[in-house]
Structures are given as C-alpha cells and as structure tokens.
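Course assignment 3, question 2. Fill in each field.
Student: A.L.
Task: Predict the tertiary structure for the chain below.
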Amino acid sequence: MFKHILPIALAMSLAGETMAATIEMVVDDKVYNVELADHAAAQDLMSRLPMTLTFENFGQTERIAYLENALKLGNAPTSTTPVVGDFAYYIPWGNVCVFIKDFRHSSDLVPMGKMSEEATEAVRKSEDRPVTFRAIQK
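Answer field:
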C-alpha cells in the first residue's frame, strides 16, 4: 500500500502545491484519476467538466490540447519546473499540457496537477483519439 501512496505524496510535496480535488480522465474507455492543485485556475477547469480534448505532440517533452477559452488564473502560480506526469496550463497559448519528460523552469506555465505514470502513458499514446476529463463518478 505504501508503495502506491508514497510517490503521490512525494510528487505533491515536491511541487509545492496542495492537491485539492481528484477528477477522472478517460482514454480508450479506461479511467485514470488526476489530482488537481488547490487554486483558482484548477477550480475554473473543474467548473468546465466534462471536457473532451485531443492532445498533440509538442516536441518530445509534452502533449498539448487547446481549451476553448482561457482559464481564470486568480491565485494560481504562474511558473513551475515540470516533471513527468505534471498537468499544466500554458498561459500565452491557452493550452493544457501533460509532461512526458522533465523540463526546465518555465514562466507562464501554471501547475494544474499530477497524473500517475499510467495516466501519463495513456495520454502519451492517445495519438488523435479523444481524452475526456470529468468529475468523479459516484
């Protein structure tokens, strides 16, 4: 049990962000949990769920998908040093991104949350298939 909890706790503490909510991501009918940060931008994203996006490769470091409208940032941090599994929002282009490789510190990049290794791999392999984010089904 600890081997599953420790990586999540470590990732949350390293990012300096408190995780506030869990949403679901669906890729090819398989469901993955995504932990969202505790700030206004993540809350704005949650208010738009369900949302279906198509991710594309951006270099070899991340997969990106464009939102219809910009997120309201409020108290969200506007820079981060992303690592594999980070879910983020790039302010200038209005896109969300999933990092499949570690990257350098970046301004205008809002840390939105964390994905498990399995969820990150599902996005990496999603090609042009839809990826749906939704509230947790109870």
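Instructor remarks: The longest strand covers residues 19-27. The CA atoms of residues 29 and 131 lie 9 Å apart.
Grade: pending
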